[in-house]
From TrEMBL:
InterPro entries linked: ATP-PRT_HisG_long (IPR020621), ATP_PRibTrfase_cat (IPR013820), ATP_PRibTrfase_CS (IPR018198), ATP_PRibTrfase_HisG (IPR001348), HisG_C (IPR013115), N-reg_PII-like_a/b (IPR011322), N-reg_PII/ATP_PRibTrfase_C (IPR015867)
Protein name in the entry: ATP phosphoribosyltransferase
Domain of life: Bacteria
Species this chain originates from: Blastococcus carthaginiensis
Family: Belongs to the ATP phosphoribosyltransferase family. Long subfamily.
């Protein structure tokens, strides 16, 4: 049986369950359920705090889990101090970055100026590691959440926190300084050194199938044969585009996958070239 950890709360919870459901796995009906068994796939899902997921997976209690990259790195034991979990694949949601911020009126405008200051964070391990790498000595103030308020309340001179849209920072009168400490997103994790069992390989293929279906669309168009070289260079597809003859002499039909974000640029380019009947359709599922 495969045992999978899924975030039970927070921003990663819903998209993680959605991606698993799209991958054909049964998910819990109520947010209060702690676990659910999917008999069709002989898989049990455990709903846990994202901060704890890598710990369970590292211990080998669960085969794989979904958590944030920042959470994995925060909970990873120091070198040689017990088993750890490793990233298997990024899942394309829950993107955020981990950044320094200071009050807009503060004198601290560069990371170097953080030396000797108090920095509040809910990710003390990540922050300490980064400060050490940069050779910066500063006091780390560990908080549980709502870190942005720490400066106003006088317990810190700066914060290091998760930023997505920046709305929370702005609302707290803070602004970003320096480069991102880390770029994070939801990831699949497994125990370091563990051999991949077939059920995990299948889960990975299914998740990748969902990612591809989300990131790509199917493009069809008709093209005069003399333009085929140039048109297929715009739409090279994965292995290569399908080209089939049309009943009208001198024309071919072309079919290729393209990145969803490129859709309109590619359609414009093909139209300019002389392609016609350009159609875009969604991909519902895939194995690539
Ligand atoms: N806008 C966002 N806000 C918070 N976390 C985000 C955001 N976008 C992505 N994440 C990711 O979600 C994970 C944090 O999850 P969550 O906020 O549920 O945990 P927590 O902050 O420890 O718990 P809680 O917020 O319930 O106290 C991290 O991996 C983080 O990078
Ligand atoms: O850049 P934004 O789009 O504003 O998102 C980032 C905010 O969201 C998270 O808070 P969360 O809701 O998880 O609360 P917490 O700080 O208590 O963890 C994070 O800690 C930031 O505060
Ligand atoms: Mg949070």
């Amino acid at each position: 049986m495969l045992r999978v950890a899924v975030p039970n709360k927070g921003v990663l919870s819903e998209p993680a369950a959605e991606m698993l459901a799209e991958s054909g796995y049964r998910q819990r009906r109520s947010a209060k359920d702690l676990a659910v068994y999917d008999p069709d796939n002989d898989t049990e899902f455990f709903y846990l705090r994202p901060r704890d997921i890598a710990v369970y997976v590292a211990a080998g209690t669960l085969d794989v889990g979904i958590t944030g990259r920042d959470m994995l790195l925060e909970t990873a034991p120091a070198d040689g101090e017990g088993p750890s979990a490793v990233e298997v694949m990024p899942l394309g949601f829950g993107r955020s970055s981990f950044r320094f911020a200071t009050p807009v009126e503060s004198d601290i405008q560069e990371v170097e100026q953080l030396a000797g200051k108090r920095i509040a964070t809910a990710y003390p391990v990540l922050l300490r590691r980064y400060l050490d790498e940069q050779g910066l000595k500063a006091d780390v103030v560990k908080l549980d959440g709502a870190v942005e308020t720490a400066c106003r309340l006088g317990v810190a001179d700066a914060v290091c926190d998760v930023v997505e849209t920046g709305t929370t920072l702005r609302a707290a009168g803070l602004h970003i300084i320096g480069e991102p400490v880390l770029s994070s997103e939801a990831i699949l994790v497994r125990r370091q050194g563990s051999e991949e069992i077939p059920a995990v390989a299948q889960l990975r293929r299914r998740l990748r199938g969902v990612l591809v279906a989300r990131q790509y669309v199917m493009l069809d168009y008709d093209c005069p044969n003399e333009l085929l070289e140039r048109a297929t260079a715009v739409t090279p597809g994965i292995e290569g585009p399908t080209v089939s003859p049309l009943r009208t002499p001198g024309w071919s039909a072309v079919r290729a996958m393209i990145a969803r974000t490129e859709t309109n640029r590619v359609m414009d380019e093909l139209w300019e070239l002389g392609a016609r009947a350009i159609l875009v359709t969604s991909i519902h599922a895939s194995r690539i």
